Design the sequence.
């Protein structure tokens, strides 16, 4: 079969600016189907959410898969699955049905696929059970299930125990997921699929990609596993590799801070086999945004398998960094040999970070005892055209006084900062000698009041 699946996953979808995430690369491979006969059951979701283009594209993908297996088993697209292999079709919604048994007729398989109609809920457990019933326990053929679904379980028993029992019988389970209208639980697909999960599960948000997913699963099916595998993973320059966990098969080494090379001598030569590699990376860039984790992933092997890895992205959130004073430009000079002193004229040096502090005092008139006051202060600057520009707002709570009558209250030292780089007044800008024209407004009201809403009492005669 060659490489039957390839995947790349990350463990989080959002990190902070210096955050870390775990990346998992995974592959699975299986022997040549022509010399290792295999029984394959396609388990196809026909629930109501598959109506329209999802079902149409599923049919295209499933028939593409059948055609590739047809040719792989006997080197001819002759309408018959050869070399002892067979394919069966199971479809499901509220319940599952065996649309064919394990057969070799391509025409009959395609007719079963074409006859699917969408409607009803999603019963994964019944689908797995019906698929298991198609296999002959006495057959020496390898046994493979390919579960396709676009939603969560909405009917029937929990499917995980049924899938686990199938795996315990030696049945290999792959899961293809379409993120449909009802959503999909990727963790459930991982739970159902044969380990390693990452190499036996593929998910897409676009039903137009279903043909490619089915084709990728079948395209290398005639090849005898994979040997002399070399994978070069190159990260986006905004990420660095922090650590590498030894892979489940083969060896991995860091080439530099952004590149890992993973080598596997052979995979899936004598039976279905998966391998995975995990490594930890850290964001080292300074800008936020949604970023692709890898710059590129290249794959090669002796058999010439064609492998494409997904391109996961992560949302990076960075704090705003402000550098108010850039480093000054240096002035170069040289002291010649035997010269023990030097006199230099380095030109003009200007004061930096100029600005002013406005300190305001105000008197609140006739504040009654026992009343707190809310005070708002709004400061603006006026340009040459008379337009006002905001320069700050402050709100203060003035504590209540306890005099016997209303009195005036002084508020002192309300401070505003006016950097010179905001100067819009007429005259010499960005210099403390310039004139700046300002306006200040005060808003004040009592916080405390004796007012209470009337309580309406209704009586019935």
Sequence:
């Amino acid at each position: 079969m060659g490489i039957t699946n390839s995947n790349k996953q990350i463990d989080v979808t959002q990190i902070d600016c210096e955050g870390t995430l775990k990346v998992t690369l995974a592959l699975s491979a299986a022997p040549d189907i022509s010399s290792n006969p295999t029984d394959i059951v396609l388990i196809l979701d026909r629930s109501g959410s598959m109506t329209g283009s999802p079902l149409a594209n599923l049919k295209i993908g499933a028939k593409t898969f059948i055609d590739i297996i047809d040719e792989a088993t006997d080197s001819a697209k002759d309408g018959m699955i050869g070399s002892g292999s067979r394919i069966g079709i199971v479809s499901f919604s509220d319940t599952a049905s065996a649309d064919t048994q394990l057969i070799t007729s391509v025409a009959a398989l395609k007719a079963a696929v074409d006859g699917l109609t969408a409607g009803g809920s999603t019963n994964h457990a019944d689908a797995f059970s019906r698929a298991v019933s198609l296999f002959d326990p006495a057959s020496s053929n390898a046994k493979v299930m390919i579960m396709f679904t676009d939603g969560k379980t909405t009917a029937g028993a929990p499917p995980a125990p049924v899938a686990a029992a199938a795996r315990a019988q030696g049945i290999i389970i792959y899961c293809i997921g379409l993120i449909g209208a009802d959503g999909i639980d990727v963790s459930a697909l991982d739970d159902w699929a044969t380990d390693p999960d990452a190499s036996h599960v593929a998910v897409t948000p676009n039903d137009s990609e279903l043909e490619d997913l089915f084709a990728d699963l079948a395209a290398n099916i005639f090849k005898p596993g994979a040997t002399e595998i070399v994978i070069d993973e190159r990260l986006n320059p905004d990420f660095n590799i922090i650590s590498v966990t030894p892979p489940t098969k083969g060896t991995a080494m860091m080439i530099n801070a952004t590149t890992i090379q993973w080598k596997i001598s052979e995979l899936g030569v004598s039976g279905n086999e998966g391998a995975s590699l995990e490594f930890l990376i850290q964001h080292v860039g300074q800008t936020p945004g949604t970023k692709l984790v890898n710059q590129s992933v290249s794959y090669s092997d002796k058999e010439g398998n064609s492998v494409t890895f997904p391109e996961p992205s992560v949302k990076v959130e960075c704090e705003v960094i402000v550098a108010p004073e850039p480093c000054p430009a240096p002035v170069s000079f040289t002291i010649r040999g035997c010269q023990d002193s030097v006199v230099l004229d380095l030109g003009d040096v200007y004061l930096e970070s100029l600005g002013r502090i406005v300190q305001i005092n105000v008197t609140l008139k006739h504040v009654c005892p026992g009343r707190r006051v809310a005070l708002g202060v709004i400061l603006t600057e006026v340009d040459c055209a008379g337009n006002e520009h905001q320069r700050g707002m402050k709100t203060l709570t003035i504590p209540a006084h306890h005099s016997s009558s209303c009195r005036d209250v002084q508020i002192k030292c309300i401070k505003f900062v006016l950097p010179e780089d905001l100067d819009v007044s007429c005259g010499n800008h960005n210099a403390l000698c310039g004139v700046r024209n300002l306006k200040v407004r005060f808003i004040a009201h009592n916080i405390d009041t004796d007012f209470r809403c009337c309580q309406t009492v209704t009586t019935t005669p």
Observations:
- The first strand starts at residue 2 and ends at 10.
